[in-house]
Design the sequence.
């Protein structure tokens, strides 16, 4: 139902844009007869509700339509760009968790100390920095001046700067969520009982506290990864990363309705699927959750 609602809203919103696809395809100097023929060929002369039902039927069969501006199937274009976005998203999430989990744990264990205050300040700074500013700054320093990384393009070395620029803001969110969650878990009765039994502090921390505290982190992780898989428009544009974000930016610039709808639906599906996976993971992280 969520995907169906997104299909409906996205499809009708695109037709609020004062743009005639037939005129775009034909060119600005095309005659009225040529434009009319293109409209008939594309089915644009049919009522909007008929075109909507045709599109829904095609989507149910795995067909995202045909892009007459670039003369290619939309599904083919999305599937070609999706692996590059997935690659960037996975590496970005890796950097996010690599920084966030240690920071969140240390801040919670050292709560109200100087270290806790310093780490919380750094996370606030990380959240406050816009991704486009971080990406541009890193590209200028590490790519242009120091020449440690390429200025753009898809490569194993070229993925580092865009992944880190996305990961800085994401890791700050993760760290703050994990710290708050751990402080709540530390007050629970079973944690005090574990300490009373004489269990080592490290075992109580990692086997009991961190495991339960990761539940809200996993929730945010599902939304985060789903959104990243949907496309990183600003980051991919800055670093010329040929993924869904760059493709969507080009589609918006040219008002390519069919491609915009296709990428939006792919993004929505990725988020819905990731939320489903997160719900399943709850049963493994929280012993109180049982789907049987």
Sequence:
């Amino acid at each position: 139902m969520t995907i169906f609602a997104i299909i409906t809203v996205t499809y009708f919103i695109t037709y609020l844009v004062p743009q005639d696809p037939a005129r775009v395809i034909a060119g600005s100097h095309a005659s009225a007869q040529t434009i009319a023929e293109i409209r008939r060929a594309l089915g644009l002369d049919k009522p909007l509700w008929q075109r909507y039902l045709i599109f829904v039927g095609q989507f149910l069969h795995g067909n995202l339509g045909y892009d007459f501006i670039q003369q290619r199937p939309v599904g083919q274009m999305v599937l070609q760009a999706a692996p590059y976005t997935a690659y960037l998203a996975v590496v970005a999430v890796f950097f996010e968790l690599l920084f966030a989990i240690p920071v969140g744990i240390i801040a919670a264990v050292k709560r109200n100390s100087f270290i806790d205050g310093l780490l919380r300040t750094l996370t606030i700074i990380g959240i406050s920095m816009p991704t486009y500013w971080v990406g541009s700054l890193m590209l200028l320093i590490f790519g242009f001046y120091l020449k440690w990384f390429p200025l753009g393009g898809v490569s194993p070395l070229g993925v580092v700067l865009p992944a880190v620029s996305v990961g800085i803001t994401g890791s700050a969110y993760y760290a703050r969520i994990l710290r708050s969650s751990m402080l709540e878990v530390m007050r629970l009765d079973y944690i005090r009982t574990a300490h009373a039994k004489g269990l080592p502090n490290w075992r109580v921390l990692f086997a009991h506290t961190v495991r339960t505290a990761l539940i809200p982190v996993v929730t945010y992780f599902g939304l985060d990864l789903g959104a990243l898989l949907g496309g990183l428009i600003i980051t991919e544009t800055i670093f010329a990363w040929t993924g869904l974000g760059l493709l969507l930016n080009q589609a918006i610039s040219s008002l390519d309705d069919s491609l915009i709808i296709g990428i939006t639906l792919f993004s929505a599906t990725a988020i819905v699927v990731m939320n489903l996976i997160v719900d399943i993971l709850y049963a493994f992280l929280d012993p109180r959750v049982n789907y049987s």
